[in-house]
Automatic annotation (TrEMBL), chain A:
<feature type="transmembrane region" description="Helical">
    <location>
        <begin position="168"/>
        <end position="192"/>
    </location>
</feature>
<keyword id="KW-0813">Transport</keyword>
<keyword id="KW-0472">Membrane</keyword>
<dbReference type="InterPro" id="IPR051393">
    <property type="entry name" value="ABC_transporter_permease"/>
</dbReference>
<keyword id="KW-0812">Transmembrane</keyword>
<feature type="transmembrane region" description="Helical">
    <location>
        <begin position="213"/>
        <end position="235"/>
    </location>
</feature>
<feature type="transmembrane region" description="Helical">
    <location>
        <begin position="27"/>
        <end position="53"/>
    </location>
</feature>
UniProtKB/TrEMBL annotation, chain B:
<feature type="transmembrane region" description="Helical">
    <location>
        <begin position="170"/>
        <end position="193"/>
    </location>
</feature>
<comment type="similarity">
    <text>Belongs to the binding-protein-dependent transport system permease family.</text>
</comment>
<protein>
    <submittedName>
        <fullName>Carbohydrate ABC transporter permease</fullName>
    </submittedName>
</protein>
<feature type="transmembrane region" description="Helical">
    <location>
        <begin position="273"/>
        <end position="293"/>
    </location>
</feature>
<feature type="region of interest" description="Disordered">
    <location>
        <begin position="1"/>
        <end position="28"/>
    </location>
</feature>
<keyword id="KW-0812">Transmembrane</keyword>
<dbReference type="InterPro" id="IPR035906">
    <property type="entry name" value="MetI-like_sf"/>
</dbReference>
Automatic annotation (TrEMBL), chain C:
<keyword id="KW-0732">Signal</keyword>
<feature type="signal peptide">
    <location>
        <begin position="1"/>
        <end position="28"/>
    </location>
</feature>
<protein>
    <submittedName>
        <fullName>Extracellular solute-binding protein</fullName>
    </submittedName>
</protein>
<dbReference type="InterPro" id="IPR050490">
    <property type="entry name" value="Bact_solute-bd_prot1"/>
</dbReference>
<dbReference type="InterPro" id="IPR006059">
    <property type="entry name" value="SBP"/>
</dbReference>
<dbReference type="Pfam" id="PF13416">
    <property type="entry name" value="SBP_bac_8"/>
</dbReference>
Amino acid sequence: MSSVIQEVASTRRAAGERRKGDGRMAALFLAPWFAGLFLITAGPMAASLYLSFTDYDLLSSPTWVGLDNYVRMFEDPRLIQSLKVTFTYVFVSVPLQLAAALALALVLDKGMRGLAVYRSVYYLPSLLGGSVAIAILWRQIFGADGLVNQVLAFFGIEGTGWVSHPDYALNTLIILNVWTFGAPMVIFLAGLRQIPRMYYEAASIDGAGRLRQFWSITVPMLTPIVFFNLVLQLINAFQNFTQAFVVSGGNGGPADSTLLYTLYLYRKGFADLDMGYASAMAWFLLLIIGGMTLVNFLASKYWVHYDD
Amino acid sequence: MTDLATPSKVTFAEPASSPEGRASRAGRTVRRVRSTVASGLKHAGLVAFGFVMLYPLLWMLASSVKPNALIFREPGLIPTDVDLSNYTDGWSALLHPFSRYLLNSAIVVLGCVLGNLVSCSLAAYAFARLKFRGRNFWFAIMLMTIMLPIHVIIVPQYVMFSTLEWINTFLPLIVPKLLATDAFFIFLMVQFFRGIPRELDEAARIDGAGHLRIYWQIMMPLAVPALATTAIFTFIWAWNDFFSQLIFLTKPDMYTVPIALRTFVDSTGESSWGALFAMSIVSLIPVFLVFLFGQKYLVKGIATTGIK
Amino acid sequence: MRTSINQRGRRGAAVAAGAAATALILSACGGDSGAGGGGDVEAQDCPCEIRFAWWGSDERHAATQEIIDAFEAENPDITVVPDFTDWDGYWNKLSTAVAAGDTPDVMTQEERYVSDYATRGVLADLGGLDIDTSKIDGSILAGGQIDGTQYALPTGINAYAMVANPAVFEEAGVDLPDDTTWTWEDYVEIADEVSKGAGDGVWGTQDYGFNEAGLNILARQKGESLWTPDGELGVSEETVAEFFQTSLDLMHGGGQPDATRTIEYQHAGPEGSLVGTNVGGMSSFWSNQLGALSEASGEDIQLLRYPGESEFERTGMYYKPAMFYSVSASTEYPDAAAKFVDFLLNSEEAAKINLTDRGLPANTDMRDVIADELTDADQQVAEFMADLSDEIVDASTVPPNGSAEMQDIMERVNTEVIFERMTPQEAAEMFVKEVGAAIAG
């Protein structure tokens, strides 16, 4: 504690020095994070990178195999299938989920009776997202004799077992992901409230209408949050695992139609005791996500507005 | 020393004034009728949508009062017979009463919330407001740490924590949060901090405030929505986190709610679905309350906190 | 500029710390490698604490804790720490703990993984420990032997069998088959008849194609077997194709539901299965699941021999070790661990608490001990198992390393068949190829 006070004092004294850069202050503020990075995160990450170059079954020592695991990946038809599934999943569900989240955040932001209840109710599915109960529930809704088909039958349409048909099972997973839009919705809500009211007041005085205010204040001021949600939901969706695991009974079925990349990786590592291969898959995924994120950041310069 | 905010800045912290007062006198009645109808429709839409969102919970609630054998035989929403024995049986079915697992989860979750609030906001302040060499580099590293699936990290982590003799304690679950390893929240707060007008800290700096004071007296109060988001998400995610708690907690007296819930079902043998649903409902209550209570901070943030 | 030097120094220290952590992790990842045979661990005397790991659901957890309490009462110097979770979580947790050299002293094993764990030196040679195995039948003991060494002791036995729901048969106006003589053709016919007789939404049977045990029975009837003693796939492509063809015929003839329903029922476990929810006449299950099925359906579910037992050159049914108890090769307390395993297998107290939860006890004396305490369903299982003993030709071979992938392959291949994206012949080719790759790697 006393060192913190000293830092404060010395920083004040060195007010001129601070103009050149805040290296020392940064080190102070980042100290917990650096400690976490080097003591907790870096070691296991480096270890997994090393293990990706080994044949490692978890039960005995890893043996160095060079690039073998990475080469095997390109000859693995299930891995290619899992990439297809994952890309479809990510690029369909993330935009839909964000659109739903933003739309509802805008509706629920304005003063209205029962807001707290609506917000909480809309968030509920996100609380259930990974529960084992979802497996049974999803069958009850999207099964051959499920709720959806009962509604369709009312209109004279004959459905199929959506959740267990290889052609449709992935769609039910996408719906599940969109349905749990609570997290981005909450972040949007917080973001909307972060926009200083003085901007709106100033705009009102200038005679700008609501729509004008929305496009010239709300939208630009919200872009950092939209950007955040986009980046994070992409990263999350690429690593999504629990929902597919629960709904498919653990194996990405039927016929690998819901074999998300991380689910396949998990099975390889723990069920098939091939952790070397799983580690290689993980680092390959990191490259994909990293590339995607980099593109996002580069593109953000053109549409994300920061107040600083 | 001096007041950090000038009176003129305080106005921006006032609650939003409702824009309705500007309606012209002539059209007021018509508009009021129209807006009542519109708001009625809006509520009807929100309620209908809310039912879709609530359906799973209602279904789970219904299933939790059915005898185990009827959950599959009569999967409908309305139970033919209400039987609370799933609650009483489920509560005491495991080695300890369920309250033990709730308590353990509460300890883990509170530690995580506290850790994330402090450590992530410190790191976020550095990334959002301080100039230092390698800022972009470290930011990229930070994002990278959340791009690797946990499944390949967990084994090296276990090895590390086992060497520290932290296995079967809450330390592997809490200490990483104290050290800001949840980069998701750093990024979240960076985005929010960057939305806070710079003029505020410029003014404070002219008054001679150091970064620690700016962080504590300007950023933190203004970022209440972001802090609330972090707290709520950390709470919910830590409450539901199955994988790492399963791996790091080995003795039943340390088990948490997600592990306890999972012990009701076993894919190779008999499962107590009724007890699972009943205890899932029980364990949802705290999370739901936290959200219901916490969500007002998401939106009240700037308006009520103000600056002193 | 002082700042940056200072910072660089700190950063250097941090990098060093990270590197040290990495080195430590890597050296420990192979932690168990030297432990093969348990030679390098010095055995300690008690008082001591040993950890016992198992999978299951709440009823087993409660029963096992009771057994532990009974053991501790008899052995006050040994404390047994329970470590339990469900099936999927169990194998994650166990492999992670083994990787860190933190193997539970006593653990539960299963035939799909026992060879993987044994051949990598994780499991102790139980022959060298003081555990009485004289009451366990030799052919059942063999299920826990790899290359002649006893790494695992069977907890009990199960048989993969057909179950029938008499209420559904009655509703359909069809008699229960005579399971000593029925052929595969009879099976298909009866299933079709039940479907027709019982009307909409009720089917004759649930698809057996997701589980390799049924395939193993057919293979054994034809003089083949799923695995050969030297760890190869022992079933021919023709047999595999025939196996899937029967399933497809049943679907086409209406004896079993369409593909999507088949998958839904498959994932619903015994409680949500066709037989368990009283909408199906027959289904394939392990004998120890009879209790769950009877309870879920509220009916007196019957165990039947698999079809075709008298159709070919020999019978195909077999006793499967339900699970195994194994001891860690690196335990500090091998004697305490052995004492506990011995208690689990041979004490009347443990047997009376456990009943048939871990299969019908492998210890034949214990079967008599628990006979009076069994539920009706379990009584039926015990009689059924006893009836089989004269018919079973030999034990099924221990699956080789990599066989854990079998279940996954089975499920994928069968899905391709029932959605008719592959012919049974193509499916058989895919099966042979994928299983070959799994056990080779």
